[in-house]
Amino acid sequence: MFRTQINSNAPIVKGSGKMMVELPFIPHAGDNLMLGDSQALWQVVKVTYIIHDEFHPKRDFVDLVVEVVLSEDQK
Known about the structure:
Number of strands: 5
Structural class: mainly beta
Oligomer: single chain
Order of helices and strands: EEEEE
Radius of gyration: 13 Å
Strand order of the largest sheet: 2-1-5-4-3
Number of helices: 0
């Protein structure tokens, strides 16, 4: 599982454009994800990997930041 922060320019959950999830895969630009209170379809536009150096307490983890926009199918 990949601990992932999802960022959006529109509310995803409880009025916020940010949420934390655990994903069983690494999404890529163009992929679609079902997210949020309404389980709307969101399209991935950017994925950023955060790799911690050897001195960081979370050095064994790779975190992801995923930017999404509401999918064209949902508009």
